[in-house]
From TrEMBL:
Record's compositionally biased regions (Basic and acidic residues): 105-114
GO BP annotations listed: poly(A)+ mRNA export from nucleus; protein transport
Biased composition (Low complexity): 68-77, 346-355
Full protein name: mRNA export factor GLE1
Origin: domain of life: Eukaryota
UniProt record similarity statement: Belongs to the GLE1 family.
Organism: Tursiops truncatus (Atlantic bottle-nosed dolphin)
Amino acid sequence: MPSEGRCWETLQALRRSEKGRICYHRDWLLRGEDVLEECMSLPKLSSYSGWVVDHVLPNMQENPPPSETSTSPRSTSALGQPSFVPKSPVRDPAFSPVSSATPDGTKDKYESQHTEPMVLQSSQGIKVEGCIRMYELLHRMKGAEGLRQWQEEQERQARALSEMASEQLKRFDERKELKHHKEFQDLREVMEKSSREALGQQEKLKAEHHHRAKILNLKLREAEQQRLKHVERERLRKEEGQIRLRNLYALQEEVLHLSQQLDAADQRRDLPRVDLSAFRTRGNQLCGLISGIIRATSENGFPTAEEQAVAERALQEMRDLLVNLQQEIARACEDRRRQDEEEAQVQRQESQVQQGPEVRKEPPASRQGPGGKLNEDLQVKVQDSTMQWYQQLQEASSQCVLAFEGLSNSKDSQAKKIKMDLQKAATIPVSQISTIAGSKLKEIFDKIHSLLSGKPVQSGGRSVSVTLNPQGLDFVQYKLAEKFVKQGEEEVASHHEAAFPIAVVASGIWELHPRVGDLILAHLHKKCPYSVPFYPAFKEGMALEDYQRMLGYKVTDCRVEQQDSFLKRMSGMIRLYAAIIQLRWPYGNRQEIHPHGLNHGWRWLAQILNMEPLSDVTATLLFDFLEVCGNALMKQYQVQFWKMILLIKEDYFPRIEAITSSGQMGSFIRLKQFLEKCLQRKEIPVPKGFLTSSFWRS
């Protein structure tokens, strides 16, 4: 725009004017109001005027500026003025206080030649100019001094720092060298220590090597001695095995000879009513047992002492079997002879009757049972063979008592002490048998077996052995068998589960020590005749108390025990017997047959069903026997067993119910419900407390 152009032209003109070229200080107001007052005050000389006259004016007079030589009307007129305003010290360094302060004055003279003419205007101005120059001089002097001191201080600090750095470097080098020396010393000490330890370890290893070498030499000598002993034992074992093998062959030959005699006796045709097949069957079983032992011996080497003992027992049983067969044949011959005599007598009587008047006789009416079925009479007494077996066991028990009679009736204190120790050693372990862990049961069995084997055992803090007295073994066997039966009478009667651990120990002892088993049966038959089964008959002239004792009742001071207590004891002993016939010691020889196995249980069940039932007793014993042993019999005989159960239900229950009063129906109802439940499920349950494989791992 035109107006804007004119503004800029105006500003340029003002800048080129005299006032526009004046230099202004922005900080002049900071100096105070004295600056303006100087213009309004009257001129007067200051205290620095003398210094100016002495130093400034003489220089100006000696060296007048060139401008003074050329006079002009204007300069002449100017001389008439009081003074000229000097130039500012800042614009002209010729008037610097430092240059005028030099002592020789040469520099001042040089500077004065270049200074402009200067006329004092007023005393105030001179004072100000002098103050300014003195201040500048002092300021330069102070600055130079301060700079010099600062340089000296910096140099001093630099030297101090340099010295300190050099000292620290020396200390660092010294520490570093000391550290190296120390590390080297430590390393040397460690190496020396390691070498000492290595030498000590080497010496120790040498000593251990020598010691081990001695031990190895001793072990080698011991091993050689053991090898020689083993060779000797093996030689003796082979010799004994060969002797036992020859004896076993001799036993087999004798058994086969006896078996031939049994077969010859069984083939007799003059005894058509006598069944001798049981003797022949048992003889064949014994022959098979001997043959099995010899077969196992041929596979394993030589027969053991236990196998020889089993073979000897089989031979003895074969001999007894032949004797029983001969007795049975003799009895049958006697019966036939008696029958022939009776038939001859009847024929004679008939011939006499035919000669007289004929008399019509009516045949007696046959008795019929309920439902119109023929009610055949069952046996009341036991079979002759069973009775003979019962008497043999009682006779063996009596002979055992006579064998240790001297020990039991001895008045010697030492003998009494031995008897007491042996009785405790035999009975206390049996008392400790209960539903405990299998490992504890094995300890008890091993202790009883060691005692019967003649080894010393600990009892009451003393060492006891049957070898302390010649009659000790008989005494221990008798007391041990008595204690087993007593445990069944008391412990099993109260806790039915205890029958199985007691039975398994008794079965294991029976297997290793057959005489103990015979004594157990003798005690059991004596206290519980129903375990035969045997119903003692009342004989003429016998006291009632004696008869009740024969039946198994306890009679104390002419008082007979209650029926519940009697049944409880009988139940405990039957349960123990039922457990024994089905259990075997798990750590025994499995090749041998059970010394009194399930076949005896089957025989007992068959015989008791062939006998007339007893009120309250038969039902109780059948329930206890089947609850404990029914599962094992079911697995062994299967279909035949269930036929037996149906026979009990259909034929035997009515007989029991017919003789049982209304107040004694509890045992009968319990047996009936048990069998009906088993027939419904088609299974006999496993008895409570039966020993499983987990029991023996505990």
